[in-house]
Automatic annotation (TrEMBL):
<dbReference type="Pfam" id="PF03446">
    <property type="entry name" value="NAD_binding_2"/>
</dbReference>
<keyword id="KW-0560">Oxidoreductase</keyword>
<dbReference type="InterPro" id="IPR036291">
    <property type="entry name" value="NAD(P)-bd_dom_sf"/>
</dbReference>
<dbReference type="GO" id="GO:0009507">
    <property type="term" value="C:chloroplast"/>
</dbReference>
<comment type="function">
    <text>Catalyzes the NADPH-dependent reduction of glyoxylate to glycolate as well as succinic semialdehyde (SSA) to gamma-hydroxybutyrate in vitro. May function in redox homeostasis and play a role in oxidative stress tolerance by detoxifying glyoxylate and SSA generated in glycolate metabolism and GABA metabolism, respectively.</text>
</comment>
<protein>
    <recommendedName>
        <fullName>Glyoxylate/succinic semialdehyde reductase 2, chloroplastic</fullName>
    </recommendedName>
</protein>
<dbReference type="InterPro" id="IPR029154">
    <property type="entry name" value="HIBADH-like_NADP-bd"/>
</dbReference>
<keyword id="KW-0520">NAD</keyword>
<dbReference type="InterPro" id="IPR002204">
    <property type="entry name" value="3-OH-isobutyrate_DH-rel_CS"/>
</dbReference>
<feature type="domain" description="3-hydroxyisobutyrate dehydrogenase-like NAD-binding">
    <location>
        <begin position="236"/>
        <end position="355"/>
    </location>
</feature>
<dbReference type="InterPro" id="IPR008927">
    <property type="entry name" value="6-PGluconate_DH-like_C_sf"/>
</dbReference>
<keyword id="KW-0346">Stress response</keyword>
<dbReference type="Pfam" id="PF14833">
    <property type="entry name" value="NAD_binding_11"/>
</dbReference>
<dbReference type="InterPro" id="IPR013328">
    <property type="entry name" value="6PGD_dom2"/>
</dbReference>
<dbReference type="GO" id="GO:0050661">
    <property type="term" value="F:NADP binding"/>
</dbReference>
<dbReference type="GO" id="GO:0051287">
    <property type="term" value="F:NAD binding"/>
</dbReference>
<dbReference type="InterPro" id="IPR006115">
    <property type="entry name" value="6PGDH_NADP-bd"/>
</dbReference>
Length: 360
């Protein structure tokens, strides 16, 4: 069985200078722990007072630790969509030296205005940075941006690291990992759980796997963008964990949608259903957050429906690979496919309720 590590950040946000010349180095050692042992990250006040790390721009990966520390290198960010933009923004706000690239260049403007540098290709970003993050839509775009013409691989090499935070399947992640590692660089898959708001608030959950030393190095950056991080061992385990989580989420949303419509059909107020659900054992932040707007037929996009359907499709592939029946997820997948065919791809995944409406 692999080794697993999860660390949570304290309730207070990291100081804004976590990446800057006034970076605070928190003394700790990296020690993977067995699964289900989730220590909370504690700061040692005396080390806060006594260990101010000097700023240095290094072409080598730093020796930052998994439980704290600072990252003083150059950070690349590829993919500035709903998730990538706030994640990169949080790094900039924390004082990191960030270089961005996005297929649609105009989406870089906000980041450049906030202090980011720009490079014209993923290869140029990777060659000018110590660590490069990628937050892309799906397996195809993740492979293209890593391994395609002018892909990040062309700019990678010994002393660098590539962190793919996109939601993809394990086979895709392994193939990107192999291409990156052939250059002598390190690879970490780190898909995130948590949507637009958690990304804005630096409250994501990172599900990482791959090179443990890269995990350790980028931990201060993950701490800026997220509230906790799990190290799950071999490449593929992070992807699998993310797909299982999103398989559950997709089915939950489909079931909730059925409940909303059924309650209305039998003469109940669906808003009251949302309230009842919120007080019981099946309460979930997702239902309370999205329920009221679903009742109004509004689906402001946080997690695009097309990405939820992609995750269900990939989860079905994962289940197939181990002959595990997942009939609920298979049924939910059909519903998301129907919603896509009715034009709801780019709306929030809660628009799946529309696929159940008889008048469609
Ligand atoms: N939104 C959410 O709540 C969450 C999303 N995720 C996952 O994170 C990833 C990104 O999601 P999100 O930010 O919402 O998605 P968006 O659709 O908002 O952004 C997708 C990004 O991928 C880029 N992209 C898409 N296709 C290509 C391509 N062929 N070549 C180059 N770039 C491409 C887009 O570039 P361009 O701007 O040019 O279109 C954009 O930067 C997905 O894997 C998603 O499943 C994970 C957790 C939560
Ligand atoms: O992948 C989506 C999420 O909310 O997590």
């Amino acid at each position: 069985m692999g080794r697993f590590l999860s660390l949570s950040k304290p309730s207070t946000k990291l100081p804004l200078y976590a990446c800057s010349s006034m970076a605070v180095a928190l003394t700790s050692t990296f020690s993977p722990r067995p699964f289900f042992q989730f220590p909370r990250f504690k700061r040692n006040p005396s080390s806060l007072l006594n260990s101010i790390a000097p700023f240095s721009v290094s072409s080598q990966l730093s020796n930052a630790t998994a439980e704290g520390g600072s990252f003083s290198g150059r950070v690349g960010f590829l993919g500035l969509g709903i998730m990538g933009t706030p994640m990169a923004l949080n790094l900039i706000k924390a004082g990191c030296d960030v270089t961005v690239w996005n297929r649609t260049k105009s989406k870089c403007d906000q980041l450049i205005n906030q202090g980011a540098k720009y490079q014209a290709s993923p290869a140029d970003v990777a060659s000018s940075c110590d660590v490069t993050f990628a937050m892309l839509a799906d397996p195809q775009s993740a492979v293209d941006i890593a391994c395609g013409v002018n892909g990040a691989v062309k700019g990678m090499g010994p002393g660098k690291g590539y962190v793919d935070v996109s939601t993809v399947d394990g086979a895709t992640s392994k193939s990107i990992s192999e291409s990156i590692k052939e250059t002598g660089a390190l690879f970490l898959e780190a898909p995130v759980s948590g949507s637009k708001k958690p990304a804005e608030d630096g409250q994501l959950i990172f599900l990482t796997a791959g090179d443990a030393s890269l995990y350790e190095t980028v931990a201060p950056l993950l701490n800026i963008m997220g509230k906790s991080k799990f190290y799950l061992g071999e490449v593929g385990n992070g992807a699998a964990m993310k797909l299982v989580v999103n398989m559950i989420m997709g089915s939950m949303m489909a079931s909730f949608s059925e409940g909303l419509l059924l309650s209305e059909k039998v003469g109940l107020d669906p808003n009251v259903l949302v309230e009842v659900v919120s007080q019981g054992a099946i309460s979930a932040p997702m239902f309370s957050l999205k329920g009221p707007s679903m009742v109004q037929g509004k689906y402001p996009t946080a997690f695009p429906l097309k990405h939820q359907q992609k995750d269900l499709r990939l989860a079905l592939g994962l289940a197939e690979s181990v002959s595990q029946p997942i009939p609920m997820a298979a049924a939910a997948n059909e519903l998301y496919k129907a919603a896509k065919s009715h034009g709801f791809s780019d709306q929030d995944f809660s628009a799946v309720v529309e696929a159940l409406k008889a008048n469609l």
